[in-house]
Design goal:
globular, alpha+beta
Length: 202
Amino acid sequence: AASRLYAIINTMYSVFSIVLATALALSVTNRTLTTAREIRSASVADCRARRPAEVTGVITHIGPKDNFILHDATGGVRIHYYHKLPREPRTGDVVKAEGTLAMDKLQRVRFHASRISTVGQTPVPEPVEASPSDIISGDLNYREVVVRGTVIDIFADDIDPSCDQLLLYADNHSVDVDVRRAERPSDLTKLIGAEVVVKLVD
């Protein structure tokens, strides 16, 4: 009888352990991400589970298709939205974005905001002067930067037909820079061989 009681207790303990472990795992998975760094570092599993996120920061860049870059104390993150806002976002707006994570076709993290609230205004951070190695490291992702180098080639963007690619060489590295055709000089090929200063969003 004692051995049978022990077996029942042992089984109950095992079941309790599994339930507790599952509950803890779910609580971690469902925890709302609250910083740009956490969102940028999200895993494929987080995106597939449409993990919730909520971040507050200043808009530093307005994208061409219902998106903007928001910057908090941990860096920047691109916010996508698919609903009409009371007014168009502006650089310098301090906003709170709430939504869920997803993943695009290139396996990049996307933050889809279902709610965006403007809570104030503040000056936009100044661009940071960066080397190609700084950009390659990823530490300045979604940050406005200034890069100095020599233009070595110009070619059409294979993915986005509205852009051209400017190949910049500096510090023994090359950097591809997307240049929107609507915002560029009429003939970029004249820049080949020239030393330039480029302001861009990494």
